[in-house]
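Table S2 (continued). Query chain:
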Amino acid sequence: MKVTITKTKKSKQKSEKIIQAEIMKYLNKIGCSADVISNTGYGKKGIADIIGCMSDGKYIAIEVKRANGKATELQKLWLDYKSSRGAIVMIARSVEEVKEGLALHGYNFHRA
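Corresponding output:
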């Protein structure tokens, strides 16, 4: 039996800004009050890209990365600190990963 290997074109990765916008759209849809934090060099280093509050008052922090992106040690430390205080924290590369992360904390938005 002959196996044919087809080469596919590499798809262009979404930018962090696009992924952030998609996540923000989803968070707003499920009633989460969230904001994108713009780190222009004057803010606190390591802070998550998106911070907010779920409809029940639970704090949420999301570090957004491209498909192959990795969080810095400072970002991980910041997320660990917030997690130790009871916040929902995650590193997400898509809306699907946000949904999975929220499901781990008991939030299931089937229709959103």
